[in-house]
Structures are given as structure tokens and as C-alpha cells.
Amino acid sequence: MFDLAFIIEKAVLIGGIITVSLLIAMYSTWAERKVAGFMQDRLGPNRAGWGGLLQPLADGLKLFMKEEIIPNASNKTLFILGPALAMLTAMMTSAVIPWGGKIEVFGRTVDLQIADINIGILYIFGVVSMGVYGIMIGGWASNNKFSLLAALRGASQMISYELAMGLAIIALLMITGSLSLKTIVEQQSTGWWNFFLQPVGFLIFMVCAFAECNRTPFDLPEAENELNFGYHQEYSSMKLGFYLFAEYINMFISSALMATLYFGGYDIPFVNDANLGANIGINALAAIQGITLFLKVAFFIFFFMWVRWTIPRFRYDQLMNLGWKVLIPLALLNMLVTGAVILWLGH
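and the corresponding C-alpha cells:
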């Protein structure tokens, strides 16, 4: 049956999450420069607005006003498709993340999640693996040797680290028994957070998240001092902006995913959410849960930035050695130990 109210509430939720994702990505650029300034004993952006708060708007306006340049020797269709695909896949991953509990609007109970599908983690892995095509297409279509080398680096890096990430998730699924992110959050709200049950799995997942987001020390596809700016060297104006925004949105979604899978998601620590909801109402509870999740996400975003300005970039052979010779064997061992413990506790 055609349910107009359901379509409207989902459309509003999608619009809200897209807006929040773009705002967080925009102000992550400001926060990154502020964190870098603090760590390097300088001020960072402080001209546009109070404390430089309008700097992201000025940067966005600059990108909009820049001349649009498409190289003559490039494949123009794919050249445009690359950044669009990178941005699309970055935004699509947020669809299955639960941002809070339930709210009541005009007598309807609404989940703060676009789609609660029972294969949520598989959906995220599928969309994330598509993200590499945005880098590959952009690097190849530019008809620039540095861009192509960077795109090849990005593809091999993502393939290498997705294997270890998938094995870390398998160990987590052996504990939770579900691929639904909503179910995983609800399980953690009534027991231990998965971080305490899978600390090694979380460490592997976090390192792989850095590699998937092309963040330092895994930013080999954008190694400026080696590859002249990497896979988006030939891009300008908002096509370049899309690539830069996609990286920060990926960082935001990765932080939300780590918080959801290993740190209880929107679960309020040391509080019984059901009892609190009975006292203050489900709308107020959902607001507190949302704030709780975003505080966890903010911590991980800061951690991404802190690592960038602390640890130097790996050489490419070190990057591959870490992925294939350290993380994958460690993830396999973690999976075997997890299975043995589950069997032992079962008996």
C-alpha cells in the first residue's frame, strides 16, 4: 500500500542526514587546521569570522568561483563521473547507521535510521568497495601519469586493507550473530560494548579505516611530495571540492561506524536508556542519544586529525607489508581465538 507519510518522513530524514554530513565535512576542514595549528604552536585560520568560523564558507565560495578546467587529452565523461561517484558512495554509507532511537512526530513513531536492513554491514562494505572506482576513474581519465600512479596505489591499498577489515568484522559477527547495525547497538545497550569483547578486532578495524579513508599515515594516493597532489591533480573548482569533501565525509562515516560497532552507538554509558525514556519521554531520550553518538564521533574525528599531524607517512612497501603480513594474519588469529572462546563458553 502506498504510504505517503512514510515516504515523507524518510525523505526528511535523508535530507537531514545529508545536510549534517556536509556541515560536519565542511567544519572538519576548519577543525583540522585548528588542530594542526595547536599542535604546531600557531593560530590556524582566524580571519574569516570569530575564530575563523566562516573560513569553510570562504573556502567553499573560492572553489565555486574558480575556473572550471577540463584537460583536452582527458576522457571528459569519466573525468566528470569520478568525483561524482566518490561523493555519491561517501553519502550512501550513512543510510544504514542508526543515529538514535525512536521519536514521535504527529502521532507516528519514527526510527532515526534511513534503512534498518538485516545485512547492514554487507551493504556498507559493498558501497565502500565502490568508492575506489571514484579514485580509479578520476586518476585514469585525467590522462596524467602521476594521477594514474596515485589511482593504482589507492586501488591496491583499499583492496589490501578491506580484507583485514572484513576478517575483523567476521570475529565481531561471531559474537553479535547479526549484520544489522540496529541490532548490534541494542545488544551493546544491554551488555558490554563490543570494544571490551573485541579489542584486537577494533584495533584492526580502526587501522583499516585510516587506510580506507586515505588518511595519514596511509595517504599514499595523495602523496604530494611524491605524486604532485595525487589522483586529483588535474581537478579544479567543485570537482576538486567533491573529492576533498568525500574524504571528510568518509572520515565522519567511518567514525560513526566505529562508534556504532564497538562503542555502543547511541547508547548512553552508565545509564539505562529504557528507564530514562520512561521518565523524560522518547523524544528527549532520542535527542540525548543523538548527542551521545555525535560526541563519540567527534572523538574519533579528532583522533583522525591527531594521527595525521603526529605520524609520518609510510613508504609504499611498508604499507603493503602492514596490510598483508601483519593485519591479515592478526585478523585471522583473532577470528580463530574468538571462535575457540565461543565454543569453550558454549560447553
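(Above: one complete record from the training split.) The chain has one domain: 4-346.
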